[in-house]
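=== RUN LOG ===
request id: a7f3
mode: sequence -> structure
chains: 1
length: 222
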Amino acid sequence: MAFGAEELRVLRRALALALHPSPASAQDVQDCLRLAETVDEATREGARLRAFLVADLSRYRAALPGTAAGYLTLLEEALGAGYRPVPDDLAALRALCGNPVAAALLDRCLTLAEQDVRARLALHSVPASRTRGRTRLTALPGGLAATGAARATALTAPATTGAATGDPGGKPAEKPAEKPAPRPSPQSPSRDRPIPTPGEVFPPRRKPSAPPANPPRQLAAV
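=== RESULT ===
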């Protein structure tokens, strides 16, 4: 992407405002906005041209070896535009190894492919500083059993303390409910008087008297 003299002036003014903040005039703001729109449009146009170039390169590669000259020209142009070769390009260049242009492009494509592989490996590798700063694990004496016993002791200690102090939950112990007063038992009869005998309680029955031998007769009036 190339900038003209006017675009360079606007870009220089924008950089000056970014490095040394100061009030910008309305004209400077409009110039910066127009430059941003121009850059965006150029970026979109470059992406469209690159897509067309890659499509043409695929068509020429599929028609090899009859289109070797056109394919090599398009590949060199695509590499200059930032195109990264794919495995199909490497296979096609190996098939055209008798052509000196193809041999030179093959060396160039192999170098780019190697750079891509190293970049991907660098992204997935762990930095050495993180490895050195990693905390090491320390084995506890007694192993897992000691850890479990200590945890059980820590869990039961508050309950034991609470039971001893009468305060299991940290709250003041509640007073036990008062038992109801016992009811007074009925007074037993006084034992000052003597206990009656059965004869007094059940007196003997008297025998009926026998009728007289000569009962008096009464005369009834006629």
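=== NOTES ===
Residues 26-62 form the longest helix (37 residues).
The chain is about 60% helix and 0% strand.
=== END ===
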